[in-house]
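notes to self, project folder thing:

trying the whole complex as one job this time. last attempt i did each chain seperately and stitching them together was a nightmare. two parts in total, labels are on each line so i dont mix them up again. if this works i'll redo the older ones the same way
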Amino acid sequence: MPEVIGSDTIAKRAGESLALSRAGGDLLVLAHIYTATLVLGIGALFGMLQGFSRANLIVMPPSFDYYRMLTAHGVLMALVFTTFFITGLFTYAVYRSIPRDRSPRLGWIGYCVMLIGTVMASVAILDGSASVLYTFYAPLKASPLFYFGATFLVLGTWVVAADLFLNVAWFKRAVPGARIPLPAFMATCTMIMWIIATLGVVAEMGLLIPWSLGWTNGIDVGLTRMFFWYFGHPLVYFWIMGAYMIWYAVVPTTYKGTIFSDALTRLAFVMLLLLSTPVGLHHQFLDPGIGAGWKWLHMMTTYGVVIPSFMTAFVLFASFELAARKAGVRGFPNIVRWLPWKDPVFAGPALGMILFIFGGFGGIVNSSYSMDVLVHNTMWIVGHFHITVGGPVALTFIGAAYGLIPALTGRKLFAPKLALVQVYTWFGGMAIMSIAMHWAGLLGSPRRTADVSYFGAQGAATWHTQMLWAAFGGAIVAVSVLMFIIVATGTYVANQRSEETPQFEFAPARTGDDATSTPPALDRLGRWGLLAIALAVLAYAGPVAQQIQAHAYLAPGMRTW
Amino acid sequence: MHVHQQERLWLAAGLAMLVLFAAVITTSAVVDGFVPPSRIQSIDPTKVAQTPPFDHPGLRKIADGAYEAYYVARVFSFSPAEIRVPAGSRVTFYVTSTDVEHGFSIPETGVNTMVTPGWVSSVSHTFKQRGTFLLVCNEYCGAGHHLMAAKVTVE
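result (full assembly):
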């Protein structure tokens, strides 16, 4: 049975110096985290203005209209903020759990390519030549700069992934027979999923770029939509798996606990890898040109995520209970009270977990074949992704940043009380905003719409109250983001050295009699990746063939904004 | 691999939930026809104005209490802008786009479908309640997206 060993043992066996191995990557990870922080700040400002605009509290000038702002908000939050944070976190996870005297050069190249892509796409959005929203549905035609930027952002993540994979490969050679350390395993598994998923968006760019340059005359609209949603749902799991890494492996360190089960953690990640791609059609339930049978199949595979989700919930709460019992605390209310709610590194992710329960309920509605028709493209969906990526995922990343930034800079967290207030205000603001959005959606209020008054139409009058609540919640979140930026940058600027270096560690997995042993097959990530590709092909070959076969029309590009 | 007894029970509960959802949704699809709009019919968007029946968009009575409504969606309007049907009518909507992606939604009814250029979308609904319903485009289609709406009056 291969053993699970700590990083100091790995370092000793491989003849590497632990301290030396850490210095190399810290600045790189810090660059990712601060980039994500900056992007979050800009995105939140746009988000707040959108809330005000939809509630008819302000009117955006034609020179910077609602849809341009919405594109910026969606792209910066969903695609840029999350991606930079996750690639930074994974780089940290792999570098720390696989100690080695390394050069982070490849990691830096990846970061720079991502950054160049982000700047290109941002310029295109801000100058108004790419108001196509973050889904960039053809035949809306943005400037080539936007598509090139998005492509570079993705290619940059591939370079980061290559760096991580090379480190894991080095580990397998240097320490034969040992298990891949759990944090490195989670990062590698997720990046394999990400590469399989982003192949879809790169394929879509292969159609969009020549078309936007004028080299081709038309584009298959249905096919590009299908490529986008082939990528669009794994994108969601990419965010979730980044948050799961912190939930599983970092949160237990805040109460001196352990990970309940190494094996189940690995199994949950492998299941998410397999279930990430054969599900995308549930975003296209209401699309013409796709057979109802294929949609049914994708609904079933979507529901499969119930299993890793339930496993995760069990493992997280079992970790809480085991640690509490060890400390002599028993009973549900006592355990809840015992948890470190005053530590933002715990409170951020834990509040996120609470929101995620409701996000899960909503997700069951969205992915239901029959109920989706009631909520599709309404504000309900906007509420759903704010209570998932805007709640659990972002709050978890922010909580983790409060641990990561001090660990990477060797400085004390600036204004820790403000950090604590920040996570609770985010939770409250996001809850108010998301509930209001869900509610408006149930009343039929459409999403992605600058003004929902519809010339005073009767049906539209009922939507206004919820939009006011959403604007109110959104303003709270924006203030919360400002607090986060003050703490994050203040930590660096104030430069308060602490006597002992702050740490951001990954918890060990539980050992002992009833700890589950980890089957070595789980570590064969290459094979799981191949299986994931096979499932994606099975789920998509039919619908893609249907698109290509039934449909010869190629649309010219249009700029309708 | 050993899995804790309580976790087995918990996962079994999750699995049971999954089976229940799948059974309910599949039954309602097969028995009651609750299937999302999935029409597969292609059309050339550049020739919509010449393609019957979309060359004359509007309402057609096909039997007592049964109608077909043909809509053309284009930035930033629907044609026809208004239809009138008697209460209790079953209306089957056929919609296509001449330009970009649109949405076709009558809030607070089950009428909701994407409208993709190159395809004909279809969805049916029985209007039991009297009143004027708002029909909106619920997919971003450009600068005037929020102005794209029509009316369905049930008399």
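what i see at first glance: Residues 8-550 of chain A form a domain with the Cytochrome C Oxidase; Chain A fold (CATH 1.20.210.10).
need to look closer tmrw
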